[in-house]
Write a structure and sequence with these properties.
- With 51 residues, this protein is mostly helical.
- It contains three helices and no strands.
- The longest helix is centred in the first third of the chain and has 16 residues, at 5-20.
């Protein structure tokens, strides 16, 4: 079964926010930080570390 990555991340994020109840500022910082890091020279380093 092939699920798009954005859908899987949305479901995991929604369930995580509902079950764990992190503060809203923490969620926003993680989302913004991930978006900003994805467009830097660190992206290939993080990509190889994950794989």
């Amino acid at each position: 079964m092939n699920v798009p990555l954005w859908l899987a991340l949305a479901v995991v994020g929604y369930l995580g926010c509902k079950l764990i109840r992190p503060p809203l500022w923490l969620v926003l910082v993680l989302l913004l930080g991930g978006y900003l890091i994805a467009d830097t020279t660190l992206a290939p380093v993080i990509d190889t570390a994950i794989k």
